[in-house]
């Protein structure tokens, strides 16, 4: 069935030009990023309804069908961003971050080890939670002063950690559900490990020079066991829900936001034991609305196909994912086939770390550290992330080479 024709300028669909203007304003204009993203989403939506058909059809009917297709993913993202913001405060008030200086090295190796801990956590847990936990620990062990280059590295570590695990990132889970064997994405860790090493070394030294790690934990710190149990309960609920849906009930994934619901049901069930810090929600909501507006706008782009599967096209997709939602990119790649899924998982996962709004982990962390919401500062101080992406990709190419598979093959 042919795809609907969409208006274009010099061969470029007008939706892409509108989206590019929105991204440029977010990156460089000194206006509210949330209002810019919301305004851009509204303009693109109206344009699509009046002049350019959705992939599901034209006009209001097409809009409703598209919303029906996207709402579960958007609702899950909203629930996770807000839920993990509350979880971060539980974790902070558990006092665990306060005792970590006794267990982390006292020099630049302390922030270096912390990045690898974020990497490990993200291998089995959502990258949003891993980034927020990393940001919470960093706030404590660095006296509240965290370098933007180090924040970029935390996001990179959280995205790298999930790239080789089919339960560590939404995109790898999508591949698994489409028939890609877990072993066919596992080698993404070759690239991810090299990339994290490349960016973690300069980032750790940046942080140690900016605000050294606390050498000793304060005297008399008492762990709040109840809050520790709540944090553990929420994380276990999220992991079990993700695995259960993926293994036993894959057809339910697109029906209801079960993952976000599991997080919120656990938070609600434990609210009488330890009250969540509800005042965290307004700030988290602003960041969530911003990201949802960008994801919604990206979902309306008329991308019917990707360049032919090859390692150069996979490398390019990593840079594209820094500004374009990686979920539709992954869906298109699965439909097209012929990719080396480990390369693709690494590219669309780690690539989003190069700009602060390129991944949900970056947006979530910027809720804790608003100073990170600057593309220029992120690129200037987090230069090592883009370098690490290329070096990691090259390492995987040299070590294992491009080994394409069809989904399900």
TrEMBL record:
It comes from the Bacteria. GO terms for biological process: sodium ion transport. One of its GO terms (molecular function) is antiporter activity. Keywords: Membrane, Transmembrane, Transmembrane helix. InterPro entries: NhaD-like. The chain crosses the membrane at residues 17-50, 71-91, 111-136, 148-166, 186-204, 225-246, 252-273, 285-305, 311-334, 341-363, 383-402. This is Citrate transporter. It comes from Rugamonas brunnea. The lineage of its organism: Bacteria, Pseudomonadati, Pseudomonadota, Betaproteobacteria, Burkholderiales.
